[in-house]
Design brief:
- This protein has 2 helices and 11 strands, in the order H-E-H-E-E-E-E-E-E-E-E-E-E.
- It is an alpha+beta fold.
- It has one domain: Immunoglobulin-like (Sandwich), CATH 2.60.40.
- Strands 1, 2, 3, 4, 5, 6, 7, 8, 9, 10 and 11 form an 11-stranded antiparallel beta sheet that branches.
- Bound molecules: calcium ion (2 copies).
- One calcium ion binds next to loops.
Length: about 170
Amino acid sequence: MRLRALLALTLTAAALGGAALAWADTDVIEDGTNETRALRENGRVDIVKAIATHQGKLLKHTVVVREDIDPDRHRERPLLAINVRGNESSDPEFLIYGDDIFKNPKLGKPSRIGPAQLSGHGRRWVYRFDPRDFPDRLRGYGWAAFTTTKKALDVVPNNSYATHRP
Ligand SMILES: [Ca+2]
Ligand SMILES: [Ca+2]
């Protein structure tokens, strides 16, 4: 009897936890550190964690790296890949970098479709953007954060997109 009660309690807690998460709709993706030599040598581009959440009507994506960033090093800014079509391994249809959202066509160059807001402080970069700036708005979407410099590359999540709902 006691065991059953305990089990019920655990299940309730799990259900509540799930509900709270669904309500907050926050994805937190942890990443390894020092994965490659280049990432070992430059902790400013070694992603530790990537988070997708909301701020009012805006989407907020935070990228935490291993060492304090230097906001003036533009090449070390993280990018966000946004996937709205195709499977987990398909190319992203949109890219967000710095102050801009780009459409990423299969052929040809990316073209700007709207504004993004990037701020950086300590070990965090924070992107804010409006899902209404995307064609057909942005409903459920896959996302991945990545850094890419001459030597280093770090992608989070590693081999797929995380799914987020505005
Ligand atoms: Ca990493
Ligand atoms: Ca795609």
